[in-house]
Amino acid sequence: MEGYLQLTEAVLTRTMASVSLTCRHVLVLLTVLILLALLRSAREARRVYLVDYRCHRPKASSRVPLATFVEHTWFCVNGDEEAVDFNAKVLQRSGIGEDTAMPDSVHELPAGDASLGAMWGEIEAVLFPMVPDLLAANGVSPKSIDLVVSNCSLSCPTPSLSALLVNRLGLRSNVVTYSLSGMGCSAGLLAVDLVRDLMTVRKDLLALVVSMEAVGVNGYVGKVKSMMLANCLFRMGGAALLLSNRKRYRGASKYVLHHLVRTHLGHDDRAYGSVCHEPDEEGNVGVSLSRALLHVAGDALRANITSLAPLVLPYTEQAKYAWSLAWRRLRRGG
């Protein structure tokens, strides 16, 4: 009988130890699952969804065939054959098509209208009905927009573009607005980056981002080649985006923003002066594109790829790149 009790006691001890061990495993497993759920929830909260977007579609009368543009250039430069030939060559090599558009002021002869009225006319022609169409297509009420970011590099009117959108769309009085200017071709991405940063600290936001450029009032009518380039390369256009970090857009959005990197080369004098809005010797104002622009753009692209590659490339490709880089350095050293 005593032996039987000892055996029973031993069995109970092992059983309790087993139960205690199982409970520990369950607690550890539950803790891990809770941490994973919190981590996933935190990642979901930081995600920015591109709900939808719209691009400006100019009216047929705004179309500027290349021959028409060259003819307008002839009038602007008073028949200077060298300037006209330069514009024609740049147009042929630029890839600009026959269906690009310019605002109504540029269609006028000889030099068009560069007044504030013409600028506002171009701005409203680009923004409306592009923005109302975007909201209507997605069933979004203007009152539900929490954040507006607009950017227009060369034109910075008062009231701002964001204020114009608030007024015309009837947005809420507590809507947060930003208007960016003077930031060139990267302004659209910078606007998205600003929205992303704001969405990391505020939940359940719906943002409207509008990007455009008023080209009509900033056209160059002189004969300096570095300043005539902008006339050939830039056209009328704009885009509107709806961005949100609301979970209900997870399945309905077109894209999800995973990574965005920025490189600012303003500390380099060559980069700082590669694109300048300035007058020429005769007082004609335009945008000057220096010869260093391609090298500066290449440096910025290289820096961006270096920052972006570790975020998107698989480890095998990163290892291949590291080995290739080390091999090249060894060969140079040898």
TrEMBL record:
GO terms for biological process: fatty acid biosynthetic process. The chain crosses the membrane at residues 16-39. It comes from Anthurium amnicola. One of its GO terms (molecular function) is acyltransferase activity, transferring groups other than amino-acyl groups. The gene is KCS7_2. This is 3-ketoacyl-CoA synthase 7. Pfam families: FAE1_CUT1_RppA. GO terms for cellular component: membrane. Residues 43-329 form the FAE domain. Keywords: Acyltransferase, Membrane, Transferase, Transmembrane, Transmembrane helix.
